[in-house]
């Protein structure tokens, strides 16, 4: 059992999977260059020393190519772990992910598997509009992709290993503020959720959410950083006599719907918190699901706390205004009583 | 006493009918037996006769409204009576509103004018969760004030309503009984009081009542509706007859004496006296409980001349059981709670026997109570 | 020409004819409303798919385009399965889930064809990377059109194939028009193959209406890549004798141009060559024609007799199980 950051936990997960299965390899920009970064956030740092440059494959800056190579390699029997430096670059490879990876199994009548992993850092971190978006909802809308979003070191390693072993394309959204990256790649305002990570082999099954804090009066659903905001809010709300249950779905597709529904059936109130902007978003979809399937258990309107419909602003004062926070959660929850 | 005009339960497949027309206007004289209004079911339009003579004092539903069967849609005042203000008739005054409000969108679909009782902008908001709870527990949420977001009625308002005894019973019920499946311990307010309680299956009894309602006791259509509470009141008498020395320590049982039925009305709590209950058939007992006669006018809970044995249907006040019994003037109170519906279609209610040890020994109380429970759960034993 | 074995030549003739007659039958079925979607027919380009695929093994991969029937037949996908797919039957090669633009059969080395122009090129690199990593001396062929030549995905893919020396043969079927847009108006270079030099890879040009020329060029390219020398860009100059899709009125090109290409269309050309060489008589060719017709009748009968998928089968195969 070691105390690891998420970046370290992901690295250990990749290392173990590469040792376990020779089909597994990594590809991406700046991931294995000697003396380089080990990826934008140090996740693959040092792995090329152990596995060589064939298995930690540095690519040109060609996002379409990275995705396509991962897809083709997966179709032909390898287990690629690809990454982009910033999730925003997923838009460059949208055709490959949405038209090719997601639909290949369907187009083949179920005969072709695409067991690939694509890692993408998201989240607003003072980088302005093109390096700070939260893109989860773009991809949760695409049938055929599995999507996970680990918020702890334990989950990061366990979900990565589960993703590598899954026979479908799995997108891993990682939050830049949660990596706990050190040195030059460390982030201002990072949460650094260092956690215990077992040394032995384990996976966190895709499709299973978790209750981070039990409560009886309101269900707060968050992912990535907003889980921590929700937990801070719950702590504060407890002082006002409001018992909040905090749920971290961990997997966005396929969603652990029953976990959320059963919690709402208990509490009668739902608040979903996300960093993404509101319209057409992930939170709205969860609200809709609950309104459809647990309406008669609701004691108050379902609420979402999302960013406004603007690009992520750069100036820290505007960014703070744009992002959700524990205070916004507390305010919203209190309005439901 | 003012006569409430009830919607007859004519449609067997529906709980609502449409009020087609009133044949009398408010203020007009009405004679018992003459046609008063018409209702429309999914099959036919039927004229309904007045059940009492007097003045049509008010109507609570208009032509075209969808109304719930057995709800009150108006009042006939007998000679010398006055219409009580809503403030003093929290129960009767609200019923028609309930009937109309419950009809919801259907009344709009029927193209009728908005019911008189619903004012624009006065829609009551209730959360889906609260509404669901209200409907399963029988709480009349239309009368509640919401404490939730934007004044909506939320779950806690319903729970509050369930826990608060209505004013007239306050003196009798010391504290709200917890709704629990556990057997309540003998909770006593007075040291010389005893209490026995059990959650009893009334599925068979409910079916029996349904049969009586459909076919009538003799197989002919009857306009008497026998409720579960009526049958249990009758069982209270029959059980006593099987233990003649049981309920009344001075001998003779209930058959030769009288029985009080607790009713709330006109802003206070009353005891309706049933004379010689042991000689009554189920139908006549039922009719007597439903009628407006025989009410002890005196306001005190139990008049000096009141009967020693009381029966109370707490279910109609959204209560399950009483917690304690301190009325030394009475020997015993048999009370029943709300009917609860379970997923497996079974129905239960709490039966509580509260008694004074000075009047009744624990042994006889237990024997009597067990007989009551047995007869409720297996009503075939009655016949 | 003499070094190509006669059975290979005959097989190529038979395959080209099969593609031609298959596409003609598709057109008829489409007009009869029995194929419920548009079609991008391969008529006129048969020599490219057949000449290239005659050099491939089962374990080699072919990635098709939105005009994939020819690629599929040339790589060995059963015409029964293709026809059933076009007629939206449960026995189709994609169980009725994909239709004309995505025919393929991974069992014979052709995954579903990629309907997005240029979208198959990076995937071809990935498959070739896997072949290389697995120590196979197999190759991946990526067909693409002159239109796709200007897609960013193709550039990224060619560059990656080149730097990693991947066994990919990029086969450009330059049929002169991207839908209705003439190639000359979207590229300053006369040949797509000229771009190979920019990626540091080998470029070749072949007469795409001459199956023997395509075969020889592909033979060279495939063996080059098999030996681990990296990718090749092979451009085949060809012409589609039909419209881009079934709704194409063909008003953007001249009748003279069409007549010119019709004169040198590949099937007639190979047939005449057979007779001239004394390898086959006209009667022999008529017999092949008859057999091909029977095979296509059989495919249509198979598709006709096959059941439609259940409506709720739409829910299956979103994920691989």
> What portion of residues of chain A belong to β-strands?
15-25%
Please name the CATH topology of the largest domain in chain A. Answer: Rossmann fold
Low-pLDDT segments of chain A? none
- Strands of the largest sheet of chain A, in order across it? 3-2-4-5-7-6-12
Strand composition percent of chain C: 5-15%
Identify the CATH class of chain C.
Alpha Beta
CATH architecture of the largest domain in chain A: 3-Layer(aba) Sandwich
What Rg of chain A, in angstroms, do the CA atoms define?
19 Å
**Shape assignment of chain C:** globular
In oligomeric terms, what are we looking at? heterotrimer
Q: What are the low-pLDDT stretches of chain C, counting only 5+ consecutive residues below 50?
A: none
CATH architecture of chain C: 3-Layer(aba) Sandwich
Provide the domain count of chain A.
2
Distance between the termini of chain C: 48 Å
Structural class by secondary-structure content of chain A: alpha/beta
* Succession of helices and strands of chain C: HHEHHHEHEEEHEHEHHH
Largest beta sheet: strand ordering of chain C: 1-2-3-7-6
Note the main sheet of chain C.
Answer: 5 strands, parallel
Question: How would you characterize this protein structure?
Answer:
- The complex is a heterotrimer of chains A (337), B (383) and C (321).
- Chain A is an alpha/beta fold and 337 residues long.
- The mean pLDDT of chain A is 95.
- The radius of gyration of chain A is 19 Å and the shape is globular.
- Chain A is built from 12 helices and 14 strands.
- Chain B is α+β, with helices and mostly antiparallel strands and 383 residues long.
- Chain B has helices at 92-103, 105-109, 128-137, 155-163, 203-215, 228-242, 282-290, 362-377; strands spanning 3-6, 16-22, 29-30, 35-40, 45-49, 54-59, 66-68, 72-77, 193-201, 258-265, 268-275, 309-313, 332-336, 340-341, 347-356.
- In chain B, the strands form 3 sheets. In chain B, strands 9, 10, 11, 12, 13, 14 and 15 form a 7-stranded mixed β-sheet that branches. A 4-stranded antiparallel β-sheet of chain B has the order 1-8-6-3.
- In chain B, helix 3 (128-137) packs parallel to helix 4 and helix 6 crosses helix 7.
- Chain B is globular, with a radius of gyration of 21 Å.
- Chain C is an alpha/beta fold and 321 residues long.
- Chain C has one domain (6-307): 3-Layer(aba) Sandwich (Rossmann fold), CATH 3.40.50.
- Chain C has 11 helices and 7 strands.
- In chain C, helix 1 crosses helix 11 and helix 2 (46-53) runs parallel beside helix 3.
- The mean pLDDT of chain C is 96.
- The A-C interface holds A 25, 54, 59-60, 62, 64-65, 67-78, 80, 95-96, 99-100, 104-115, 143-144, 146, 167-168 and C 61, 92-98, 102, 104-107, 111-112, 114, 116, 119, 121-131, 133-134, 140, 152-153, 156-157, 159-160, 163, 316-321.
């Amino acid at each position: 059992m070691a105390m690891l950051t998420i970046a370290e936990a992901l690295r250990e997960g990749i290392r173990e999977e590469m040792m376990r299965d020779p089909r597994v390899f990594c590809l991406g920009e700046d991931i294995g260059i000697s003396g380089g970064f080990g990826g934008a956030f140090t996740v693959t740092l040092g792995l090329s020393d152990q596995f060589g440059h064939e298995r930690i494959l540095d690519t040109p800056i060609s996002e379409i190519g990275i995705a396509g190579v991962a897809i083709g390699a997966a179709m032909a029997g390898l287990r690629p772990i690809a990454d982009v430096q910033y999730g925003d670059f997923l838009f460059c490879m949208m055709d490959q992910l949405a038209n090719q990876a997601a639909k290949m199994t369907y187009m083949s009548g179920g005969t072709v598997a695409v067991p690939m992993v694509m890692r993408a850092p998201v989240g607003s971190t003072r980088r302005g509009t093109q390096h700070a978006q939260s893109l989860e909802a773009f991809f949760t809308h695409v049938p055929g992709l599995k999507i996970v979003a680990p918020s702890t070191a334990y989950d990061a390693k366990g979900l990565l290993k589960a993703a590598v072993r899954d026979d479908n394309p799995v997108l891993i959204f990682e939050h830049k503020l949660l990596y706990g990256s050190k040195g030059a790649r460390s982030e201002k305002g990072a949460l650094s959720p260092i956690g215990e990570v077992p040394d032995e082999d384990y996976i966190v099954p895709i499709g299973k959410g978790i209750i981070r804090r039990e409560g009886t009066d309101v269900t707060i659903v968050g992912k990535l950083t907003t889980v921590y905001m929700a937990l801070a809010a719950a702590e504060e709300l407890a002082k006002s006599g409001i018992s909040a249950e905090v749920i971290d779905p961990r997997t966005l597709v396929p969603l652990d719907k029953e976990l959320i529904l059963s919690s709402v059936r208990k509490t009668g109130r739902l608040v979903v918190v996300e960093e993404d902007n509101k319209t057409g978003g992930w939170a709205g979809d969860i609200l809709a699901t609950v309104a459809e399937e647990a309406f008669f258990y609701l004691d108050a309107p379902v609420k979402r706390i999302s960013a406004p419909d603007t690009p992520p602003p750069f100036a820290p004062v505007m960014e703070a205004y744009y992002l959700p926070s524990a205070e916004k959660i507390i305010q919203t929850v209190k309005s439901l009583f | 006493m003012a006569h409430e005009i009830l919607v007859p339960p004519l449609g067997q497949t529906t709980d609502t009918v449409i009020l087609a027309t009133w044949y009398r206007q408010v203020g007009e004289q009405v004679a018992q037996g003459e046609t008063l209004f018409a209702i429309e079911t999914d099959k036919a339009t039927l004229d309904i006769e007045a059940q009492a003579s007097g003045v049509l004092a008010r109507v609570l539903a208009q032509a075209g409204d969808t109304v719930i069967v057995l709800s009150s849609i108006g009042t006939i005042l007998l000679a010398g009576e006055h219409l009580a203000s809503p403030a003093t008739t929290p129960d009767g005054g609200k019923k028609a509103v309930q009937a109309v409000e419950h009809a919801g969108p259907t009344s709009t679909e029927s193209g009728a004018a908005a019911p008189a009782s619903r004012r624009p902008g006065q829609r009551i908001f209730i959360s889906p969760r609260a509404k669901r709870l209200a409907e399963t527990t029988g709480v009349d949420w239309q009368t509640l004030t919401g404490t939730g977001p934007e004044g909506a009625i939320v779950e806690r308002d319903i729970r509050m309503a369930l826990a608060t005894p209505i004013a007239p019973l306050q003196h009798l019920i010391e504290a709200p009984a917890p709704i629990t499946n556990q057997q309540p311990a003998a909770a006593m307010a007075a040291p010389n009081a005893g209490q026995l309680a059990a959650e009893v299956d009334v599925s068979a009894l409910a079916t029996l009542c349904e049969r009586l309602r459909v076919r009538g006791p003799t197989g002919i259509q009857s306009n008497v509706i026998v409720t579960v509470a009526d049958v249990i009141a009758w069982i209270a008498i029959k059980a006593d007859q099987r233990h003649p020395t049981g309920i009344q320590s001075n001998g003779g049982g209930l058959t030769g004496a009288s029985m009080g039925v607790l009713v709330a009305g006109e802003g206070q709590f009353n005891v309706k006296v049933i004379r010689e209950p042991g000689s009554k058939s189920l139908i006549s007992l039922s009719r007597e409980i439903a009628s407006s006669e025989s009410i002890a006018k005196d306001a005190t809970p139990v008049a000096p001349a009141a009967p020693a044995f009381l029966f109370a249907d707490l279910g109609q006040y959204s209560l399950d059981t009483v917690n304690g019994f301190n009325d030394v003037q009475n020997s015993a109170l048999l009370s029943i709670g709300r009917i609860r519906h379970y997923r497996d279609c079974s129905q239960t209610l709490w039966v509580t026997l509260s008694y004074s040890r000075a009047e009744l020994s624990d042994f006889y109380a237990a024997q009597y109570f067990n007989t009551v429970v047995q007869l409720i759960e297996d009503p075939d034993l009655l016949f | 020409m003499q070094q190509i074995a006669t059975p290979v030549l005959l097989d190529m003739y038979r395959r080209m004819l099969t593609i031609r007659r298959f596409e003609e039958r598709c057109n008829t079925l489409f007009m009869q409303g029995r194929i419920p979607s548009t079609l991008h027919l391969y008529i006129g380009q048969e020599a490219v798919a057949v000449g290239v695929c005659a050099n491939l093994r089962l374990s080699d991969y072919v990635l098709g385009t939105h005009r994939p029937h020819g690629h599929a037949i040339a790589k060995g996908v059963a015409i029964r399965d293709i026809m059933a797919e076009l007629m939206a039957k449960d026995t189709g090669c994609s169980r009725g889930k994909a239709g004309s633009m995505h025919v393929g059969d991974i069992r014979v080395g052709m995954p579903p064809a990629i309907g997005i122009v240029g979208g198959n090129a990076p995937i071809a690199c990935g498959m070739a990377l896997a072949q290389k990593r697995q120590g196979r001396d197999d190759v991946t062929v990526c067909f693409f059109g002159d239109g796709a030549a200007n897609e960013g995905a193709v550039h990224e893919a060619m560059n990656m194939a080149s730097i990693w020396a991947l066994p990919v043969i990029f086969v450009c079927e330059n049929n002169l028009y991207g839908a209705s847009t003439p190639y000359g108006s979207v590229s300053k270079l006369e040949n797509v193959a000229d771009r190979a030099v920019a990626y540091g890879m080998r470029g070749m040009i072949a007469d795409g209406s001459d199956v023997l020329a395509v075969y020889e060029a592909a033979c060279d390219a495939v063996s080059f890549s098999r030996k681990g020398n990296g990718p090749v860009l092979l451009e085949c100059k060809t012409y589609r004798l039909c419209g881009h899709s079934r709704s194409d009125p063909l008003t953007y090109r001249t009748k003279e141009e069409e007549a010119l290409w019709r004169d040198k269309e590949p099937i007639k050309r190979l047939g005449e060559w057979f007779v001239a060489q004394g390898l086959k008589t006209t009667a022999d060719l008529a017999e092949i024609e008859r057999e091909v017709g029977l095979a296509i009748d059989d495919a249509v009968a198979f598709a006709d007799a096959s059941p439609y998928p259940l409506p709720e089968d739409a829910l299956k195969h979103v994920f691989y199980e």
